[in-house]
Design a protein that fits this description.
The protein has 751 residues and is an alpha+beta fold. The protein has 24 helices and 26 strands.
Length: 751
């Protein structure tokens, strides 16, 4: 019995033991299933990530080329200094101390308690901390960056990556929560923690060589990265300006050589080395898919220091110019390397002619004399002679719509030269030819006539009386420009002996004629026609259909007729004006201005009546050729006179304009406080169509504005002449043949 009892007890124990073993085995099997099947892919990826070292390979931007193949900007080889996340975090020293202890103990490291490990690390840490700080100090000294600034850059890297890691971990937790998975997980290292991050760009070859040697002594701390810097060959240039055709007071046979810096800057633009929020939202480097995995776009933007087109054409053509990074993945377990080669950005050939642009820029330079207040101007007495006047000019090819030049002054590099100081605000970074909007004044008069004809409201051959003021009971409003005390309240009807046809109305710039047409057309239809001409589309403002209808419902005749002479609630950019005049020359076909060669787009094929276009062109030619035309001649007070627009050998159709301007704040010491306010300095405009003498069809459309220059003819007209001569000098027009002025344009000539 005793033996049987022992047997039964032994069998019970064996059974219990079997149950325990079976239970433990089941737990292990379930855990193994979870690790290998349920969570296998994530753990496998994590393991692979730890066995892989990834390096992004830099790409380079495409070149910007002018229409004749000249390089406007391109990348040149350079070196950048990048730091690891541990160094940025100031944890590199601790990582090296741990690695040192592990190397010394080998397998003994695993046997140590946590407190013993920390004790051993504490012994090693001071020497590594010393090395860490000496490295950072050396980087500061060698790269010429203050220690405080370097500390800020390192902190920025660490803060940015920590924020990214936190955001990713939160998304992972949310994904697990939605799927009903356990939230008891720890955050893992993200890609950026295993990569290096640029903190200094464009380090010298000598510095790069020293830093590469240093990187061997400080493993996992720094890396010298092959990179590129954006270079603009035309950043400095010399332009020779002939002065034999300038107005008599500044005319001389001695050419002026202008040393220019940044003359193409407003057009070419620049590249910044920091990705902004809008860049990251538009094309992020990493995007989280719906399943929680990461999608990598090697051409995307990374937060922090990333090259992005910031202004001008660098920004406009960012997507074409930007390249796609490569990637090198080194697998530590097999010592193999996988490599995705970088793809460079595409070259972009723009419509601008670099040398023409420089010549036009030189014509606008106050040192040339045309855009500084002169004795022959009709300007406010509050502006002394020699005062620099901001100005702009743009040239458009009539047939293609391509923009050949878009110049503006002052330039950002001009510093506190008179133009900028007088303005009382920092507006030199604005390209006034493209981005600044002004009331157009009389430049819209040809457009008003064509709109009235198209609407059937201006019969061919109709003449209109000019009695000096449009409203019978108001002699102080809606007046003609000559109905002023200084002109003894003259009218064009009195001057000519009768009513005016459209040609003479354009040549004399009669306000009453175009007040009449604008009132017939009405504000709503006239504004619609302005938009059809491209006004208010590229930066200007034209009253909306609702606003124009409101004018009509209120019977606001003054606001309506004011629109007929380019005043009131409307503004335009010089580019819009040049484009509108090109539309006249084409007979009505609408084209959006193009910034690339061959990029012309015709959005509408409407054609004006050929007779109406002929009337307009005849009137614009009389502006220059008729003795009464507003761009015919200027008197100097001694009985002598000069042509307003000096352009030998060129056929010219032009219109001048004087537009009311907002009050001018004069701030000579640039302290932000205006010494005086000038209220009677108008903007001076001139628009033109040009071709060679004997040609019937205009080839180029030009718009010029001189801010607060006063009378359009006497101020903007001579600038127009200089712009046309620039076209001759670059071979776009023949001019007067062998005697045309050439002069030199040289890149990289300023020292």
């Amino acid at each position: 019995m005793a033996y049987q009892s022992v047997q039964r007890d032994l069998r019970k124990r064996i059974f219990v033991l079997f149950i325990l073993i079976a239970g433990a085995t089941a737990v292990l099997v379930v855990r193994l299933f979870t690790l290998t099947v349920v969570q296998g892919s994530s753990y496998s990826q994590a393991a692979e990530d730890r066995l892989d070292v990834e390096t992004l390979l830099p790409t380079w931007r495409g070149r910007l080329l002018d229409r004749k193949g000249r390089v406007l900007s391109h990348d040149v080889a350079s070196y950048d200094l990048a730091v690891s996340y541990p160094l940025a975090k100031r944890e590199w020293a601790r990582e090296r101390a741990i690695a040192s202890v592990k190397g010394e103990l080998g397998n003994g490291w695993r046997k140590l308690q946590a407190s013993d490990r920390e004790s051993r690390i504490a012994v090693e840490l001071p020497s590594w901390l010393s090395k860490q700080e000496s490295l950072i100090q050396f980087l500061s000294t060698r790269a010429g960056v203050a220690q405080s600034e370097l500390d800020e850059r390192l902190a920025e890297v660490a803060t940015r990556i920590d924020a990214q890691a936190s955001a990713i971990f939160r998304r992972q937790l949310e994904t697990r929560r939605v799927r009903g998975q356990s939230l008891d997980v720890k955050p893992e290292q993200i890609r950026e923690m295993r990569e290096t991050h640029v903190i200094m760009r464009g380090v010298s070859d000598e510095t790069a060589f020293e830093l590469r040697k240093l990187s061997d002594a400080f493993p996992g701390a720094i890396e010298v990265v092959d990179s590129a810097l954006r270079h603009e060959p035309w950043e400095t240039a010399e332009v020779e300006v002939s002065r034999i055709h300038l107005p008599r007071p500044i005319r001389t046979s001695i050419p002026l050589v202008l040393k220019m810096q940044g003359a193409l800057d407003q057009v070419v633009g620049s590249v910044r080395n920091e990705a902004w929020k809008e860049d990251l939202e538009r094309r992020p480097f990493e995007r989280t898919r719906e399943d929680g995995t990461l999608e990598i776009d090697l051409g995307g933007y990374r937060s922090g220091r990333d090259s992005v087109g910031a202004r001008g054409m660098e920004r406009q053509f960012e997507d074409q110019l930007r390249g796609i990074r490569g990637r090198s993945t080194r697998h530590l377990d097999s010592s193999t390397i996988e490599r995705i080669e970088p793809v460079p950005g595409h070259d972009v050939t723009v419509s601008i002619d670099a040398q023409l642009q420089l010549r036009v820029q030189a014509a606008l330079d106050p040192r040339c004399g045309l855009t500084s207040v002169q004795s022959w101007h009709t300007h406010s007495d509050a502006l002394p002679n020699g005062e620099a006047l901001p100005a702009a000019a743009v040239i458009v090819d009539v047939q293609t719509g391509e923009v050949l030049a878009a110049a503006s002054t002052p330039l950002p590099q001009d510093g506190l030269r008179a133009g900028k100081a007088r303005m009382g605000s920092d507006s030199a970074s604005i390209n006034r030819a493209i981005d600044a909007a002004y009331p157009p004044g009389s430049l819209v008069k040809p457009l008003v006539y064509l709109a009235a004809v198209a609407e059937g409201l201006a019969p061919e051959g109709e003449s209109i009386e000019c009695n000096g003021h449009y409203f019978k009971d108001r002699t102080d409003a809606a007046r003609c420009w000559i109905y002023r005390e200084r002109y003894k309240f003259a009218t064009h009807t009195k001057s000519t002996g009768g009513p005016l046809g459209v040609e003479e109305a354009l040549a004399r710039s009669c306000n009453i004629y175009f007040y009449t047409l604008a009132d017939r057309v009405g504000a709503a239809k006239l504004c619609a026609w302005y938009r059809r001409f491209g006004l208010g589309i590229l930066g200007g403002t034209i009253p909306s259909a609702e606003a124009a209808a409101k004018m009509e419902s209120k019977q606001d005749h003054f606001s309506t007729v004011a629109l007929g002479i380019g005043q009131g609630k409307m503004t335009v950019t010089p580019l819009e004006i040049a484009n509108a005049y090109a539309m006249i020359a084409r007979g009505g076909s609408v084209r959006t201005p193009s910034w690339v060669v061959g990029g012309t787009q015709t959005s509408e094929t409407f054609q004006f009546a050929p007779a109406a276009v002929a009337h307009v062109l005849d009137g614009l030619e009389k502006v220059v050729k008729a003795s009464y035309g507003t761009a015919h001649h200027m008197d100097f007070g001694d009985g002598s006179r000069d042509p307003i627009i000096e352009a030998p050998g060129v056929r010219l159709w032009a219109k001048t304009g004087t537009a009311e301007a907002s009050a001018l704040k004069v701030d000579r010491d640039n302290d932000g406080t205006a010494e005086r306010i000038v209220t009677d300095a108008d903007h001076a405009w001139c628009a033109a169509l040009v071709a060679d003498q004997g040609e019937r069809v205009p080839r180029y459309a030009i718009a010029v504005i001189v801010e607060h220059g006063g009378g359009g003819g006497r101020t903007a007209g001579p600038v127009m002449g200089a712009v046309i001569r620039a076209l001759v000098s670059e071979g776009y027009l023949s001019g007067d043949g062998p005697t045309r002025v050439i002069g030199d344009v040289r890149a990289g000539a300023v020292r």
